[in-house]
Amino acid sequence: MTQEAQPLSEGAASGHNDARIRILLADDHAIVRSGVCALLLTQPDLEVVGDVADGLEALDAYQRLKPDIVLLDLQMPKLDGVQTVTQLREVDPGARIIILTTFAGDAQAIRALRAGAAGYLLKSNVRGELFVAIRTVHKGGRYLTADVEHAVSYYRADQLTAKECDIVRMVGEGRTNKEIAAELALTEGTIKGYMKLIFLRLGAADRAHAVTIATRRGFIDP
Fold first, then answer.
1. Distance separating alpha carbons of residues 218 and 222, to the nearest angstrom
2. CATH 1.10.10.10 in the chain, residues?
3. Closest Cα partner for 133 from 30, 21, 9, 27?
4. Fold of 2-152
5. Where are the beta strands (DSSP E) in the chain?
6. Start-to-end CA span in the chain (Å)
7. Which of 39-43, 59-63, 191-195 comes out lowest in average pLDDT?
């Protein structure tokens, strides 16, 4: 796992006088929120100041409650996790956000980190890593669960472009090269060239394998 200590921002340094770390939790599953809140309540230095069910509510609650840390799910209604991170950082460039998700795909992690998240933690690792993740990020560091640690390399050669993601998505829908070419106003030969590059980037043996890898890594939705 990665724990990268970084200097505190001016906004972060001001904070609250209360020694407890104030936390806002955003997840559309009430059971998850209840479980995480119960876990956090076992720590005397952690305080849950709010829990909400979607990205829009998270934006509103953040501005009202001014939490030290936001725990944010990736898949939420109204505004997804990456969009919420982006808007929170626009409201407060010093916002400290940890993604708490079931998605281990490196593409998902990269998008969240590039948007401004300081941490990325899988829900399956919550009991073992949540407390240290919160404390690390609160101190100005960055925390990545070991499952996605490799995602900190933002410009890897095996990343797919937006157009390549669109092509793989359409392949997953069962469309032929000819149909994809018509949809994107390209030639069939161009699509074949894209497919060869996609196979190379993903290390895929065929079209079905490319879709499987792209889905697992988070380039396209399952």
1. 8
2. 162-217
3. 21
4. Rossmann fold (3.40.50)
5. 2-4, 21-26, 46-52, 69-72, 97-101, 119-122, 142-144
6. 26
7. 191-195
- Predicted model pTM: 0.65
Specify the domain boundaries for CATH 3.40.50.2300 within the chain: 2-152
CATH 1.10.443.10 fits 162-217, yes or no: no
142-185 pLDDT, tens digit each: 888 876 665 555 445 567 888 889 999 999 999 999 999 999 99
37 exposure class (CB count in 10 Å sphere: 0-12, 13-18, 19+): middle
Dump pLDDT digits (tens) for 60-76: 999 999 999 999 998 88
- Burial classification of residue 208, based on how many CB atoms lie within 10 Å of its CB (0-12 exposed, 13-18 middle, 19 or more buried): exposed
Helix then strand count (H, E) for the chain reads: 10, 7
CB 73 within 8 A of CB 184: no
> Residue 146 in 3-state DSSP?
helix
> DSSP letters along 164-193, please?
HHHHHHHHHTT--HHHHHHHHT--HHHHHH
